[in-house]
Design a protein that fits this description.
It is a single chain. The chain has about 375 residues and is α/β, with parallel strands linked by helices. It folds into 2 domains: about 210 residues, Spore Coat Polysaccharide Biosynthesis Protein SpsA, Chain A (Alpha-Beta Complex), CATH 3.90.550; about 80 residues, 3 Solenoid (UDP N-Acetylglucosamine Acyltransferase, domain 1). About 20% of the residues lie in helices and about 30% in strands. It is globular. The relative contact order is 0.13. About 0% of the residues have low confidence.
């Protein structure tokens, strides 16, 4: 097996869901009852035998450090390798302007010393908001056998004109990339979408960083791939199973709602030898009081439910009062909902209090969001 180091970007898409990233990174956004978004990428890395991981941070990464800790829950608490939090610009001269990075390439430019000190032959780059269960070994082996300079993971998806946050990758019959472009709001149909996962030789990445620094490049896809399509060998690796990317609060809502489907859950959580790990917490079992009614919902441990919950996702420690009805909603950790309340298409952040008798409703295309520590 080839030696590989993983680099995960924790903040690149924070602006996509600013409601949820005011106090945390995209990597530590809660997802699916008991997980954080980074759990999927970390688990994919570990399940593929990659035991040296760097998590590139930007700001607001206190909750991320609390969640990862020593990395023991992912078997990454190791004397050699393991997981490392990489703050922005860890070298004295990485950024003379003392400004924070905005792109993937700017982030990795500041990590040149980390990349140079690694001993692994290959490097895997991945965003943290890629919700999928992928075997990176297949991607890495495809990259090695093709002899490509960079191999990029893509998925065939149907794009509608209102989608503008994806990058479309075009390739020839041999899988060689011929063009990479952003969705322009005009083209629709089936396209190969960039999953923001790529693999390359570590020495090649070092050269990319040095060249980008010398020429002031800032975009991986436009400046590194787009400028070198004719002279370099860039390939695609097609991933065919469940994939979701969080590009807006509506995307976040819909991706969570997908988990109420057994097919999506099986594609993520019931893959043989590829479990999804997260931080272990010891909580008491959920209590379903007499008169409660729960249908087609995911309920974490530590909850107390007196009312009705339908087609919803409840995180740990949520309390639902008598005669309260919750439908099509995402209720995060330690939220307290009083009696005779009604919630539909609502997302609450952690530690929210909703008083008795409140009626709150959004829509699937625009869920009603309540910020952390808010009392309604």
């Amino acid at each position: 097996m080839a030696s590989v180091v993983g680099i995960i970007f924790s903040n690149i898409h924070d602006h996509n869901v600013s409601e949820l990233t005011r106090r945390r990174t995209m990597a530590s956004v809660p997802f699916g009852c008991r997980y954080r978004l980074i759990d999927f990428t970390l688990s994919n890395v570990v399940n593929s035998g990659i035991t040296h991981v760097g998590v590139v941070t930007h700001y607001n990464y206190q909750s991320l450090m609390d969640h990862i800790g020593t990395g023991k829950d992912w078997d990454l608490a190791r004397r050699s390798g393991g997981i490392k939090i990489l703050p922005p610009y860890i070298t004295a001269f990485a950024n003379a302007q003392n400004s924070l990075y905005n792109t993937r390439l700017e982030a990795v430019k500041s990590m040149l010393e980390f990349v140079s000190c690694c001993t692994e032959e290959y490097v895997l780059l991945s965003d943290c908001d890629v919700v999928c269960n992928i075997d990176f070994n297949e991607l890495i082996n495809a990259h090695i056998s093709s002899g490509a300079d960079i191999t990029m993971a893509v998925k065939r998806m149907y794009i509608t004109p209102d989608v503008k946050n994806y990058e479309v990758v075009e390739s020839d019959a041999d899988g060689r990339i011929t063009d990479v472009s952003e969705c322009n709001g005009i083209v629709s149909g089936y396209c190969d979408v960039n999953l923001n996962i790529m693999v390359m030789r570590r020495k090649y990445l070092e050269n990319v960083i040095l060249d980008a620094s010398a020429h002031g490049y800032s975009s991986f896809t436009k400046d590194v791939i787009g400028r070198n399509l004719e002279t370099s060998d860039f390939r695609v690796y097609r991933y065919d199973s469940y994939f979701a990317s969080i590009n807006s609060l509506t995307d976040y809502y819909m991706c969570n709602m997908d988990l109420l489907s057994s097919s999506a859950r099986d594609s993520l959580f019931n893959v043989k030898n590829r479990p999804i790990y997260t931080k272990i917490r010891n909580s008491s079992p959920t209590v379903y009081e007499e008169g409660s009614n729960v249908r087609n919902s995911l309920i974490a441990d530590g909850c107390i439910i007196h009312g009705t919950v339908e087609n919803s996702i409840l995180f740990r420690g949520v309390k639902v009062g008598k005669n309260t009805v919750i439908k099509n909603s995402i209720i995060m950790q330690d939220t307290l909902i009083g009696e005779n309340a009604s919630l539909n298409c609502v997302i609450t952040d952690k530690d929210v209090v909703i008083r008795d008798g409140r009626v709150l409703s959004g829509h699937e295309t625009r869920p009603f969001f309540i910020d952390k520590l808010t009392v309604v």
